Amino acid sequence: MEKIRVVVWNEHIQDKNQADVLEVYPDGMNAALKKGITEGNDLFEVTEATQDMPEHGLTEEVLNNTDVLIWWAHCGHEGVSDEVVARVIRHVQAGMGFIALHSAHYSKPFTRLLGTTGRLIWRESGDTEVLWNVNPFHPITKGIGEKFILPAEETYGEFFDVPKPDDNIFIGWFSGGEVFRSGLTFTRGLGKIFYFQPGHETNPTFYNKDYLTVVKNAIQWANPGREKVFLGAPWVPKTIEDNK
Amino acid sequence: MEKIRVVVWNEHIQDKNQADVLEVYPDGMNAALKKGITEGNDLFEVTEATQDMPEHGLTEEVLNNTDVLIWWAHCGHEGVSDEVVARVIRHVQAGMGFIALHSAHYSKPFTRLLGTTGRLIWRESGDTEVLWNVNPFHPITKGIGEKFILPAEETYGEFFDVPKPDDNIFIGWFSGGEVFRSGLTFTRGLGKIFYFQPGHETNPTFYNKDYLTVVKNAIQWANPGREKVFLGAPWVPKTIEDNK
Amino acid sequence: MEKIRVVVWNEHIQDKNQADVLEVYPDGMNAALKKGITEGNDLFEVTEATQDMPEHGLTEEVLNNTDVLIWWAHCGHEGVSDEVVARVIRHVQAGMGFIALHSAHYSKPFTRLLGTTGRLIWRESGDTEVLWNVNPFHPITKGIGEKFILPAEETYGEFFDVPKPDDNIFIGWFSGGEVFRSGLTFTRGLGKIFYFQPGHETNPTFYNKDYLTVVKNAIQWANPGREKVFLGAPWVPKTIEDNK
Amino acid sequence: MEKIRVVVWNEHIQDKNQADVLEVYPDGMNAALKKGITEGNDLFEVTEATQDMPEHGLTEEVLNNTDVLIWWAHCGHEGVSDEVVARVIRHVQAGMGFIALHSAHYSKPFTRLLGTTGRLIWRESGDTEVLWNVNPFHPITKGIGEKFILPAEETYGEFFDVPKPDDNIFIGWFSGGEVFRSGLTFTRGLGKIFYFQPGHETNPTFYNKDYLTVVKNAIQWANPGREKVFLGAPWVPKTIEDNK
Hints:
244 residues; alpha/beta; Rossmann fold; two-stranded antiparallel sheet
């Protein structure tokens, strides 16, 4: 079986300079996630890309060879070039899977694919999160039971401003009193999109076994499994003869 | 403006015999709910009906004069006659609004309209419930802010076996660790359906101001505002001439 | 790879007695469909069942060994026993795929799983039908281009009284002026449901290559690929300790 | 009752210079539509705006006083300024209704709100279109029976690349063999969106009584009926105390 070609994209800002982040992710969040999803399996061929690379590491050539793009970002949203964002969107619409993690809810590709603000409420207070599986027969929850627990995560709360999802996969319970639609799927053109809320930069979530199971499932679910199709207006209008 | 004709249907079993229920609802749950939704407004004309009445109080004539039917039930599901259930379903399909409260998730009309088991997990431990408003611009949440709190309710938890809803209105957070899709809308034919999770027989939920606001909003939302239409196969097949 | 266990259920009434049907399907519609979906592939293990068999051929044992049930029916809907229908529904909710063909829109299992009347308009006038593929990236349309054509089918038209589908797969265009949502998917519990409009008893649709491609795709899509799970109330209520 | 404040936005290019368009719409398409939706009722206060005006006639002040924006465009999509588009999107997300007519399927506001290409197939051959009402109980179809007919329209066909709609309202049948999901609703943030396919510049569709009924219904449906809410990140993170 051919390997799924994954790009782990990380803005790589706080995990370069900020002590409390480096303590958890000394080699960068991208390296940690790459390791987490590749260890012990032979499913994926993973490339890392970061915002400080030329064209943010997402040239047309890179995307032409990408089946699924994972996006983590937090402080650098505004610095991402509109041209690269338009390119990412075009590839998603043509079939590339897109997995937006945590604060990517405010990223340009995510909000522009969905057409909403991505607004939510939040708090950093080390709450425990229980992620309840509200779609136990979806491929993304394979191997996950009725719930899994993250001892500490940034609290996200409703109202989360996203369009009606195709499917609600997880609902997060936070010990401080909030709930959040923590796993949501969307489709845009041929492209499958998964939003997954956990992944705060000062919590060791990228090392959590259940979290990694979900991400690995999501990659396989979002993999188009076919050539990309760049839809556009047909060059020539259709004739009635075409319907014979 | 014409009043909306509401029937509050209650199995009326535990609130007839069981001490801890009678302590909260000495005159029956139906009486409490009727009082709660009619006090201080002139919107509804409310009739009460109970399982012990002939045809459970839901004759064809009663339903012909009902815009919205509210259903509360717990122990008596199996005792509800299939004929009356079929009648209720026929009226919902023709436009009657249907509001299923709490353990009505296992009732015959609810599970047969939805086609699923209505399965959930549950616990009676006096948890506090925070109901988060995940659809702040839906008519059912008018007057409700970002959330409201019930000091004690029976805990319901996921996985809740219902079809994909039209809209998710509330998500409940329980102090013991559960979450639940506590407000959900569905459509069947012309009929609008609202499932609302709170309303346990030993908790004073039917006296809660926010709860009553939601129920009153839901009645207005579910009101068909038009004659019922009993759909069926046309008696006569269509001809091509009908398309001129 | 294990074969998918399929039951082709046919009421087998008109194709036993009616000359114009026997002319098209001399060995019965079930035999024709079985042949059509098994020829040239090794994917399915197909059993035939008909309404005149004991328990309509759908005993608990048969369903225990069925992954996907195909249902064709027209005149005999009322004669199908409620007990067998309840059994079928229970197996669908537990994961069995269910494919409803043509006039099965009025069958007991279909209308009870969906909770609507299944009403539509219709005409027998030998219209040509063009089935447009409105979900070109769905597994059910694999191998189908932008459309396929049936030279003659019974005309079905809107309004089709079904709940909001998970996905709209085909829209049918009829030469006499009608349109119809000809391919629709639904989920009930763990079970996947596909409604597919063509398949009139006096038209040779069961021999059409594109039609058979769609049915074969739908079987693979609806195959649960896992043990059935019969959901029900947990015997024992949950405790807070369960969330640790 | 307060009037709904509507802006009819028209690129106003072909209806300024092109003979076959001017023959049908001598005073411009915006003037025709304004007249059509205001005649004989007192519901709307309609302003016209065109692409050649400063800021395309859609200044922040204008949008602050707009409840529903109607958008017709065809040749000029690329010339619409990104800044104005971002402003329109921000107002839709905050609650402004948005009605996209005909070739607005390729306009910047529509494709950016939806996140898809808006691709479809098309042909100018004077086909008759029959618009079938597939949502007969939706407010947008009030006063429309099972269908209405446009003697000639530009043919649009599937596959139409849009996200899963909230509701499918109309399906169009074209005499040349195509079908199209001709009326679709979406929500983005607080804003309601209606796409309506007919309205070709050389056909007198803006004078059609049924067409105007639908547009007038859609305006009333999309009217937010409340102050706009510009969602964004809360300035201050939430504290646990907020949940008391």
